[in-house]
Amino acid sequence: MRPVYPVRIAVALMSCMYSCTHRAAVMPEMAPSITAEQILQRLRHLRSFRFRLRYTISTPAGPLNADFRGVWQAPSRELWAGYWRHKGVVTNIRMVGDGDKQYEQSGRHLTCRLLHLKSDGPWRRGLRGVETQILEQVKSMLLDVKLTHVSSTGSHFLYMFSARIPLLDPMRERQLRGSLEVSRRTGLLESITCEDELGSTVWEARFGDFERTVLVDVPFVPTTSLLIEPDESVAIWKVWCMNSHLSSRFRLLGWRYRMRGSGCRRYRVYLDYDISQSLVRLAISRGVVELWVAEPAGLSSTKDSVKCVAGDAANRVFLRRFLGRNTSLSLQLDFSVQVEPALIFRCPASDPADSMVALLVNGECLGVARPQGDGFVRFVDVGKEDYLRIVAALAAVEPWACGWRVVEYSKMIP
Q1: What is the pTM of this model?
Q2: Rounded to 5 degrees, what are φ and ψ at 84?
Q3: Residues 265, 240: contact at Cβ < 8 Å?
Q4: Are 319 and 333 in contact (CB under 8 A)?
Q5: According to the model, what pLDDT value does residue 121 have?
Q6: Are 123 and 256 in contact (CB under 8 A)?
Q7: HEC states along the chain?
Q8: Residue 135, Ramachandran bin (φ over 0: left; ψ between -120 and 50: alpha; else beta)
Q9: Higher-confidence residue: 279 or 235?
């Protein structure tokens, strides 16, 4: 049995190298010239950290207090757990931010354990706000401010600045002063505080546990419900294989899903995306993607290999020669021009007389295009981005012998 110590040592050294790259001591002579942007960049380059945020603000209806603990995980995940107190009522809340989505649980009896996400009722999903973006809150406070180096203690540099808190004081009606502490050893921000002269508005955040291995799980909130079955009669053992293939395709598409059996040869599928029925049908189809050399066909043509282009009976082509299918094709997605998303294929070797190439998906012609001089053929106007991503996922693997059909399709309210 091979010893594992060299592997562990290598992993430890790599982790140390990564950590040292983004955590460097701040020399005393550097302290007066450090900027707010540099402080933020050091945090953004980390893999994870924990934080605690507390704030108090006076409102006409009484003071509003909040206290949250959280975890930030690169590149854009955050977990928040804490409470709001207003008019003597305490509302416990948990929030998860992931990309542009935000998930929330709230209630007076919610168990606010930071990393405990699987109880206490359903999650609600919506668009992400600044309330689950700790670095954005800090950035808005430090935007265009000048830090003044005040003192150097044994382990920290202390800075003062003229503060603003857009989240709590959007009209800038209060005169706020801020202070922050930067570790001399790591150069990382460890605390930042803002308050007014009367102490009626206070915002305080502390940071720590830098680069600790903490994973933020994203709650699963189903949006689309499907009942599916094979589109032809197959043996039950083949259905099990098809189920495995379907799971692999969902993962290839990056779709989060849940699946369970629902009777003989049927499955109930839950997706956490708002996906149209036409896209679902394409995603669970056999997934045959083909390129053919084509030529225009007259309306009176009766050849078997005649296809209507994009369903247009007045635009028909004759499929003259097969070029390739699925994994034999080299495909790229091009979204550089937003109004014209495109599929780009490297055209297989063909004779100079080939002046038109047809793209077929599951036997239907999506479009035709002429090869470019660089050996690529570019298909535009064949679908929007979501549609093209699915076609690319279909082409990345061999087609299935049998696909699925949708028996029931419904939307769920998250």
Answers
A1: 0.72
A2: -115, 140
A3: no
A4: no
A5: 66
A6: no
A7: CCCCHHHHHHHHHHHHHHHHHHCCCCCHHHHHHCCHHHHHHHHHCCCEEEEEEEEEECCCCCCEEEEEEEEEECCCEEEEEEEEEECCEEEEEEEEEECCEEEEEEECCCCCCCCCCCCCCCCEEEECCHHHCHHHHHHHHHCCCCCEEEEECCCEEEEEEEECCCCCCCCCCCCEEEEEEEECCCCCEEEEEEEECCCCCEEEEEEECCCCCCCCCCCCCCCEEEEEEECCCCCHHHHHHHHHHHHHHHHHHCCCEEEEECCCCCEEEEECCCCCHHHHHHHCCCCCEEEEEEEEECCCCCCCCEEEECCEEEEEEEEEEEEEEHHHCEEEEECCCCCCCEEEEECCCCCCCCCCEEEEECCEEEEEECCCCCCEEEEECCCCHHHHHHHHHHHCCCCCCCCEEEEEEEECCC
A8: alpha
A9: 279
Does residue 353 contact residue 319 with C-beta atoms inside 8 Å?
no
pLDDT over threshold 50, residue 117? no
Cβ proximity of 43 and 19 under 8 Å: no
Q: ∠ CA 288-239-279 to the nearest 5 degrees? A: 45
Convert the pLDDT of each residue in 29-38 to its tens digit. Answer: 666 778 888 8
Which amino acid appears at position 341 of this protein? P
C-alpha distance from residue 72 to each of 69, 77, 94, 105, 173 (Å): 10, 6, 14, 18, 31
Six-digit token string for 410: 């419904």
At 52, the amino acid letter reads: R
Sheet holding 257-261, edge to edge: 257-261, 267-271, 224-230, 404-411
Supply 233's token pair: 């009669």
The Cα 105–Cα 112 span in angstroms is 10
Pairing of strands 202-208, 189-196: antiparallel
Distance CA 250, CA 308 (A): 30
| Gyration radius of the chain's alpha carbons | 29
**Confidence class for position 305, pLDDT limits 50, 70, 90:** confident
Whether 102 contacts 127, CB under 8 Å: yes
Query: In whole angstroms, what is the distance from residue 390 CA to residue 194 CA?
Result: 48
